[in-house]
Design a protein that fits this description.
Strand content: 15-25%
Number of helices: 2
Number of strands: 7
Structural class: alpha+beta
């Protein structure tokens, strides 16, 4: 599944910059470099998942766990207003704070990470 580190199974991953020509060619074939923020593991993952192609994803970080946002708190571009008038849904990616509109349905609702108190 997209957005899960294969080393530590964390969902706290981000897009990484391509290193070298091999990763740039892989980008043309649909493989994107990611980095885990918890264990710093770097990995390539295909962004063309057939199981997730019908669902909305963040345009910045490709996450599928999204929340919604209120139109009254933001100044919208005309393209966003047009999408909303045509029936698009409002989605927000909480980790990268990106608001967008998509005609695709939601796969998974965002759940904030649980607070873990430090051991004293």
């Amino acid at each position: 599944m997209l957005g899960i580190c294969p080393a530590c199974k964390s969902r706290n991953v981000r897009l990484a910059h391509a290193r070298g020509s091999l990763e740039r060619v892989g980008g043309l074939l649909g493989f994107t470099p990611f980095r885990c923020r918890d264990c710093h593991h770097r990995f390539l993952q295909s962004i063309w998942g057939f199981r997730t192609i019908l669902y909305a994803r963040c345009p910045r970080c490709d996450r599928l766990d999204l929340s919604s946002w209120s139109e009254s708190h933001y100044n919208l571009r005309w393209t966003m207003r047009l999408k909303l008038l045509l029936g698009a849904r409002k989605y927000r990616c909480e980790p990268c704070r990106c608001n967008f509109a998509s005609f695709r349905r939601l796969k998974q609702r965002y759940r904030p990470p649980r607070f873990r108190p430090a051991n004293s």
